[in-house]
Design a protein that fits this description.
The complex is a heterohexamer, with 3 copies of chain A (112 residues) and 3 copies of chain B (469 residues).
Chain A (H helix, E strand, L loop, with lengths): L1 E7 L4 H11 L4 E9 L6 E4 L2 E5 L2 E10 L4 H11 L9 E6 L2 E4 L11
Antiparallel strand pairs in A: 1-5, 1-6, 2-5, 3-4
Chain B lengths: L9 H8 L13 H40 L6 H28 L24 H23 L6 H24 L8 H4 L8 H19 L20 H18 L10 H28 L4 H16 L7 H24 L8 H18 L7 H31 L7 H6 L1 H6 L16 E2 L3 H12 L5
The chains are: A alpha+beta (112), B mainly alpha (469).
């Protein structure tokens, strides 16, 4: 089992979600993060003093899938999250040793 | 009614400035002296009431600001606040310079006034009634202007806003106003001449504002993401409903200045106007809730809040000339009407984030018509005909001039912000600021689904290449 | 006092409608004409003052809405707002249809009025005083109803709320009101006959509301998670203290209409009432802060805000008949009392999210008693006895009728939402909405510890199988 | 002007308490009876107006609370709210006990009054004017005190706040007040004797508040993180701009009580004061926006809001004695001035989170000067000289006494919270509470950059070892 | 060393925390996430237009423990977070190469 | 490739970010978390009832770097995030199998 973690632009979430759903992926976990990278945050002004918000809002999508699905999932994410502009984000892949479904106690593939 | 005041001799003028000294210990009171003093006291009361009412109407600016901010997204909150702040500020200056003269100045043509610009009717030591009257009128003018900002929220350039706001309070509103209300001061308009009833301005203020808003929303087009690619309506929920509710309470309060204050005199008439105003608002609120419940099986808060405003807008015209029972009926119908109107405008793809067109345009028209139908002194085809003429004229005048104005602005400075700025929020683009920097903001729409919407935004985003987000 | 007004001859009636034309150029003023005109001007001033005060009291609805919203959780904010909106709207209609007649109509039994329903005392062209008086009274009736919503917040079904809200403003409040205040208009009640002092309604409005709230909180039971399994009190903090504080400032402002407006006449008496109202509020606020500091070693904001309200509620009854120094003492005692009462009701497991029972019930009773103790004209066992009788009667009447009503509602439509809905928040369940969709919401209690609480919620959650969260 | 009232014989006193019964059916009206009745009605109107205005000024407390809360960080919101609540409550008590007597009591020295403490000028049954007047004055005193809290926000110990708040409303404000306004009641001060014009208190209230704030901000020093190690200004953005904007609207409304209410009489003068107040605010708001746009290329919301307040503060002194056109100019200059002043104080490292010193201190001084320059009756070197003397005296008096006071507080109980508490927020440290427990809070400054700032906070954090965060 | 990551229902956090504390686990890191899975979000209505919030609020608990604790920790989480209803969540296990305590610079087991 | 995950005190973020920037690290992802550990949360009081907030706010910093950078990165974080007080936080290291840049589709080292 692998965990695929994608850092994407917030307004791309819906497309990514739909792409994954079409692959038959039934679950994912999403969170709000702040990204720091080539894409710069902007300067704001508050009563005459400027300040730079270095971080830009991003969405982190985490999906745990069976090994054989990994390439498809990555392909979908790369396609759906792309605008071609700086700041589109990253996809990281790593392995997971085991998974459990809390409701049933099922383990491994059956859990996801 | 007030004209008589200006004929009071100088003696009385002095009496008024020094109201108590007039009866010094050594002075023997006389009958005529007493009669003059009584008039002076009543005049003082008229000033106090008119100006207290003006203060209440002023406070409606806060109400509009909170309603509009609450019903839109967090990323545009600063922009909405700035608009509401500026339309009152700009409106005050333009109405002082131009609008008041056009609306209430002496007129030869009957189409607009040509005197009294820059408050030139007042001279130090002279009768200050023009000042009290101006104060009451300027808060009305600003109301008309501020209505528009709600319908055009979340996508209008700030500089274009400043321009149209000045035009609305300096030209569009006062010229129509001169037709219906000019005679309240030095003017005299053709509509009032025909017997048009619009006591506190369902048409003069609200419908005018509403139809300008309609023109604006049409020229602008809907916000990105409001419709799916197959044309279905998507909800873009307002970000702070407690503020919106507070705004409605403030507006309701302000209406107790708006309607009864339109007597510009401290007299017993204000009692019925208070009661009528309140009953119409209550009925509008309840009926909008019931209607929303029948349609959606939920007690919709946005509709209920709009329902209260709908009742208030509707009763504005007839408030002095219908019975309390009629007011209740007028408000109730407005409450139903506003729900249907919001759904209608959504369906025909006029995107009005706060429902301003439905509340002020549609219910303003209904209220004006109802003033004819429920007239306490009886109605007639003629009365209703004049009301319809007024309603129609307001629509044609406001919609046409506003449409042209918005098109002109669009062709010159541009009316709408770039899609990038719209997606990111106008607060950063126009004001370099955020409304809530200490809170974690998540757009409601980020986690919401809407079939086909992705394609919609996707299509946009690949076409226009957003640099941010 | 106002009855005399209705005897003013028709001539004066006309004078008032056209106050200035009455002294046309050709008319010679006479002594009696002047005397009549003076009365007319004073009457106009009475109308203005009474109605401005009514507007201020109306604004208290916004204050209650903000206090109750701020003191409860984000997931129930829309529900609270809707309740506050609806109790005023429903209250207006029911008080117009039924309540006013029961409270101020002519009575044969002395227990309730039987005339003046649907504002039938008013006819077009007749004396409009009934309208001004109704307007002032309706905002009082709605206040009584809105007090209840705070104590029953976060777990009451919306439809049940609509029902009890109508009953409170249409029956429970006006019937008691007729005993104490009926004589202000066409009625005449047994309590006022005994000399009961309740100038602006510490008992008539606030205690009645508070005891209905007590019955409601008892019938409902505490919110899930308010007590640990071993019965310890857990804090459920309010989600927006700036709104709550704004609400208290609005209420304080509104009380400057509530108390001095109860003169329903523009006279010099209002000065002392203003001062007394303000000093009691200030003292209540300070003493509640000090009491909380002595108990918890922190300057508790919730208690301080409640302390200001406690002082205001307490001074409502005696405001016209005690000295400023007495007012300060009355308010100070209320400030201490409210802290102890909140802790007491928490301990006996009456869960009142905003402290309404303590503020309005307990301090209302204290204020009514204090009117006897500190009476400017001296006190006596008899005066105090009558005050105690009024306090006791209010408790028995309001608590009993409300208890029966809530039990009936519970047996029919049901009073409380399901545990699932309560956990998830009423905003979704009742209104399909969220108050703050652009903000990341985290329940304060998610990250808070409370020994045994988990077992509590756990027990629930395995029993009732929540589909969500 | 009001003194005459106290000479009205007892007969009239009774007439006023029972205004309508006075003309019973059997009583024959007389000319002198009528004359007395007219005065009585005018007096009633004066009471109503003065007290309604006082209520509006009271509401400014809500405005200040919202502005100050909105312009500071979420972690200090409860603290700010408590300060605003307490300065009005404490101020009411201390002004009742001491302040009013010092300011308006009879004076032998001409430096402060020595009678009328504890409202001893009032006795039951006597003339209640002192109560109406006190009510209007107490809300002014509390305004002066509350101005200070903004400049000292986010780092002042709560207990020290309570102390200085009492001193400001009990001593510093009333003693200066007695010099300029004592003659409005029993006193008589040297400044008013020279002809100093400060109709509603640009200097007496606002500059006094502003210069105390300046002293406080200097003694406290800037907030942690406000300056980088190389001395650059860092922005610490306010956390809730909609609340701040609401606050400004409330303040603007309140000013319609503050300025025209300062007539303490219901007369025609209030019309010009209303208009002037409004035009100055509008012009201040617009010009501050334009100035900010010229400087930063953004339409700055914080500056625009402060600009409206700047215009209001400036027109407070001249509002009754300049033309509307002059008002507009005075407000416009204030709008420019406030932007420059905010930048100036930031640069000289006086950290004023809400801009109170610039708005109230600087624009108060400008307004007072402008009353001399634009005086409707013409100006002269002497008039301007007296104005400058008043401005200078206010600065010296307020700054010096406040500086000494703050130093004394600092040496005894301590003025500033610990750096740990400051970093974590005063809400927890002082009040054991959070303003928004259901929201995910992120400090704006956590994700913001500022060169060298880390070193700054780092230096602190290794030196003082924070136990938390 | 292993990292155990559990996605649970928010109101189960306290029970999970207590269960882990009883095992002697001295630390954990928790964050707010949004879950997408079998459990569906709900429809809301805003002024007549419906919209579906696809994601449901969840809490992510991350605990790093020594290898020999893993089974116990998983057992506790499975027990404490369970309601038996759809949406109870998942537990994922993966290995960690190293850990450091910032305060002391300690490394490995001693760091957790 | 390794992923370094640091749980730090919020006001240390800027220093950590600057330290990493000096190393030439060009990107990172940051999120708000709540920590439970030796450092205790505090008690609050609400209208007379006390409640303890067990969790303290922390910031999680995630950086994916090439294997040879790992030690330098850890050293910088340990240095910059330290106050010496309880609650300074942890650093966890684990391996990543692959990384992609969404904008370009680049893979592996080139993606970070
Ligand atoms: N080395 C990294 N480790 C973790 N997250 C990273 C790293 N580099 C970039 N990111 C994340 O990816 C986002 C996009 O990176 P950025 O450099 O702005 O653009 P691009 O993905 O187009 O190269 C960043 O905002 C950040 O959240
Ligand atoms: N493949 C997955 N990868 C990551 N997270 C998942 C995955 N599937 C489910 N989840 C998370 O687990 C939560 C619960 O899953 P769900 O399918 O709703 O119910 P259950 O756990 O009972 O099967 C989801 O809300 C989501 O946060
Ligand atoms: N075993 C663990 N697994 C995951 N996170 C942990 C673990 N132990 C501690 N943490 C995180 O590290 C933070 C700091 O730990 P703490 O014990 O308070 O202090 P210290 O780091 O000084 O030992 C905690 O708030 C928590 O976020």
């Amino acid at each position: 089992m692998k965990k695929i973690e994608a850092i994407i632009k917030p307004f791309k979430l819906e497309e990514v979600k739909e792409g994954l759903a079409e692959l038959g992926i039934s679950g994912m976990t999403v969170s709000e993060v702040k990204g720091f990278g080539r894409q710069k945050g902007h300067s704001e002004i508050y009563r005459g003093a400027e300040y730079t918000v270095d971080f830009v809002p991003k969405i982190k999508v985490e999906v745990v899938v069976d090994g054989n699905m990994v390439d498809k999932v990555i392909k979908v994410i790369l396609a759906q999250a792309k605008t071609g502009q700086i700041g589109d984000g990253k996809v990281f892949v790593r392995s997971i040793e085991n998974a459990y479904r809390i409701r049933t106690g099922e383990e491994g593939r059956k859990a996801i | 009614m007030k004209k008589i005041l200006r004929k009071i001799p100088l003696l009385i003028g002095i009496l008024l400035l020094l109201p108590l000294l007039a009866w010094g210990a050594d002075e023997v009171p006389t009958i005529t002296g007493n009669a003059d003093a009584i008039k002076a006291v009543q005049t003082n009361a008229d000033y106090v009431w008119t100006l207290v009412a003006a203060a209440l109407v002023f406070f409606m600016q806060a109400g509009f600001a909170m309603v509009e901010t609450g019903f839109t997204r967090a990323k545009n909150a600063v922009n909405i606040l700035m608009k509401n702040l500026m339309d009152f500020s700009m409106g005050s200056i333009f109405y002082w310079a131009v609008g008041f003269g056009l609306m209430f100045g002496a007129t030869t043509t009957g189409w607009f006034g040509t005197s009294g610009f820059f408050l030139s009717d007042f001279s130090p030591g002279g009768d200050p009634w023009v000042l009290a009257f101006w104060m009451f009128q300027v808060v009305f003018a600003a109301t008309a202007a501020t209505i528009v900002s709600g319908a055009m929220a979340e996508r209008t350039k700030f500089i274009s806003y400043l321009i149209y706001s000045a035009v609305v309070s300096g030209l569009i509103y006062p010229i129509f106003g001169s037709w219906a209300w000019g005679g309240l001061f030095h003017g005299g308009g053709w509509l009032e001449g025909l017997g048009f009833i619009d006591f506190a301005g369902s048409t003069v203020v609200h419908s005018i504002g509403g139809w300008v808003a309609l023109a604006g929303a049409i020229v602008l087009g809907p916000r990105i993401g409001k419709y799916t690619k197959d044309g279905k309506v998507r909800a873009i929920p307002g970000h702070n409903l407690p503020l919106a509710a507070l705004g409605v309470f403030i507006l309701w309060l302000g209406w107790f200045g708006f309607n009864p204050g339109s007597t510009t005199a401290a007299n017993k008439d204000i009692a019925m106007i208070f009661v009528n105003t309140n009953l119409a608002a209550a009925a509008g609120c309840i009926l909008a809730m019931v209607t929303s419940w029948l349609r959606f099986k939920k007690f919709d808060v946005g509709m209920s809040l709009n329902g209260a405003l709908a009742g208030l807008v509707a009763i504005t015209s007839p408030c002095a000339t219908v019975t309390p029972l009629s007011s209740l009926i007028i408000g109730a119908i407005a409450g139903i009407l506003v729900v249907l109107a919001v759904l209608f405008f959504d369906r025909i793809k006029v995107d009005d984030p706060v429902g301003a067109i439905s509340v002020h345009g549609v219910c303003g028209a209904w209220g004006t018509l109802s003033a004819g139908i429920f007239n306490i002194g009886g109605t007639s085809a003629k009365i209703i005909g004049v009301q319809l003429l007024g309603i129609g004229t307001a629509f044609v005048w406001a919609f046409t001039t506003a449409f042209v104005m918005f098109k002109l602005i669009d062709l010159t400075v541009g009316l709408r912000v770039s899609p990038e700025e719209e997606l990111e929020g106008l607060d950063y683009g126009e004001h370099g600021a955020r409304a809530y920097p200490d809170f974690q903001i998540v757009s409601a729409t980020t986690f919401a689904a809407g079939s086909g919407s992705s394609a919609n935004e996707g299509a946009w985003s690949s076409a226009t290449a957003p640099a941010t987000n």
